[in-house]
Amino acid sequence: MFLPKYPDNPTPPPTHTHTPANPTPVRRSLPPVSIDHNTVVALVVGGVVLTALLAAVAVTAISVAIAAVVLRSMLRDHRR
Q: What are 44-73's pLDDT values in tens digits?
């Protein structure tokens, strides 16, 4: 009842032989980009500043966490 019905004479899949119209594509060169020395210096300084800010935030977060643990311990001892 639920068996698939196959055709009596199935047609074979078509065989295509693909031949490209242009076998050697033309490579377009990118436009010349001039990188100035000041641009490189600005990027390096910006990276250093952002890294320093990230390190400062991480150190601050760790110190706040340590202070919270110490205060919690002191308050727990004070209540007893």
A: 999 999 999 999 999 999 999 999 999 999
Distance CA 4, CA 23 (A): 44
DSSP sequence for 7-72: -SSPPPPP------S-SSPPPPPPPP-PPPHHHHHHHHHHHHHHHHHHHHHHHHHHHHHHHHHHHH
Q: What is the largest CA-CA distance in the chain?
A: 91
> Is the pTM for the entire model greater than 0.70?
no
How many whole angstroms separate alpha carbon 11 and alpha carbon 37? 67
